[in-house]
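Milestone M4 deliverable, item 7.
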Amino acid sequence: MDNLTSLKTLLLAENDLTGHLPQQVCLGGVLENFTAHNNYITGPIPRSLKNCTSLYRVRLEHNQLTGNVSEDFGVYPSLDYLDLSDNKLSGELSSKWGQCHNLTSLKLSNNDISGEIPSELGKATQLRVCDLSLNHLTGRIPKGLGELKFLVNLVLNDNHLSGSIPPEIGMLSGLAQLNLAANNLNGSIPQRLWKCKTLLELNLSANRLSEAIHSDVGSLSFLQVLDLSHNLLIGKIPNQVGSLKSLEKLNLSHNTLFGFIPSSFDDMLSLTSVDISHNQLEGPLPRNKAFREASFEAFRNNKGLCGNITGLEACSSNLNHNVDHKNNRIVVATVVPISCTLLLVFVVFGILSFVRRRERSVENMPQVVASDNLFAICNYDGKMMYENIVEATEEFDSKYCIGVGGYGSVYKAQLSDGHIVAVKKLHPLQEGGVADQKAFHSEIQALTEIRHRNILKLHGFCSHPRHSLLVYEFLEGGSLEKILKTDEQAAEFDWIKRVNVVKGMANAVSYMHHDCSPPIVHRDISSKNILLDSDYEAHVADFGAARLINPDSSNWTPFEGTFESCTYCFVELAYTMQINEKCDVFSFGVVTLETLMGRHPGDLISLLSSPSGAASISHLLLKDLLDERLRSPRRQTAAEVVSILKLASQCLHPSPRSRPSMQQVSRELSARNPPPLDQFHTITLSQLLDSTNYTS
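Output delivered:
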């Protein structure tokens, strides 16, 4: 192999290989894709890689490679992705990494790398993922990292970094994951960081951070993980923490927090894990599921917490603190002389309050935007419908919750007349919510009038001072994501059904883009938002949700969901920070591949999105890409699957302008009737990308 001078692609991943890598793997200087991850390879990094300027993608993680990262690597003008994690590499980070101006992912975690993080790394302006965790890095976090405007994930945990957190980190407009845990950082948490609205995970545990949790924490409306444990934080837990409706994991343990846990925690229905042990907290525990089901370990070593947890005292019916007799006498002696005067004041204010409540009673009635059909069936009026939903869900008890997202929680509700609906209770909006309720209701009214067989029906919107509700039709089939992840259901989900699901998706998105006025951009097309009925008919759900819930948004809106879901439109997030209708096209391509492959396409997306990447996998047979839980498609169905795969690859083009419109995709799928295909087993990915005729 050391004599191959024209080698462009070498894929050795996941083969249980041992021994050393070939030292002259880039002898000809044209190597672009080199993957050997997940093996047992030992020895040094190939010396020919240092001057291999043609490199585009390198994955050598999960081996036992040795070498010096400051000596064995050079400058790579075309390098897009580098992962050397989980090896035995040493040395210091070179400032040359800042000269790799096309680098989007730099992963060097779990090695023996030492020294400081070079400030020049901030010049790698296309960087989206930077993972230097589990090393021996020292010094301060460079302010220059704040220049990485496209950075999505910054992972520096388990090092020996010191100093304060640079405020510039909080200015990264697309940051979704920040993990600085287990370092020696001190000082306060920058206020700008509390306002980083795109964060999904914030982990600052095991440092020496001090001062209080800022009230601006409520701005982190999409946050799913918050870990501030093992620090020196003081003060009370801000009430705004309870407004983090997407939060799933909360760890505030081993600090010096005091006072009561805010009552706003009762509404944190997404919360699944909590730890507030080793503080000075007191009073009753919140009543949500996470606190009810947590063990005593999550609450031990506090000042006076109480609740129905083994190991804690039960809360007294009188929640006031006990006061000794001396203080009681002082209070009585002080209060009695002025009580008569206050009584008169209370009476006056009581009368005024009664009058004001009467005046506001009309304002507090539920406001409704609804379609005719459901509410005619239900003999509808706003108050009755709202109260019916509250009763059916037992005031939105978690046992009726069937899903949680960034914008709200979804409940299954059986109304008094027997109809079953899906009710999305929206999380409270930040910064004052919707300014123009009339315009907001008018827009929902327009959505309720949408009539398309492949779009989940939105029955209406119920606006109440306590809750804002979206009422949808309920589908028993569940989500496409759930079906694909369940082997038994996936086996029943045959090729004909999958082809029809793809066509249904295309028709729905085309309708939203080209037949609605104004057009609707979905922004979150993923397998979890494709719902199926009992006949496996696809229904696109949550259409227009991002634009409705944030009416002032223009080109970009934060993602809903987990890091994994970001890959449905990662290209726009990474390169333009704009999400428009072509993001929907890209997402459609990803979901289409996921439907046919039976799993998320993962790295296949990035490989198909680049010429060199596509070339590296062009030899693969199509049959090896498809869901192995089904027999290979035959004849007419095989021809349709190939046709759909070709369209999906066009939708994944890295340039939004080069992707087809959804109207073109929908028409292609409806118009095409390819001849039966008898040679499906021999078709390669190269033929798919380069040819237009696959028939025998």
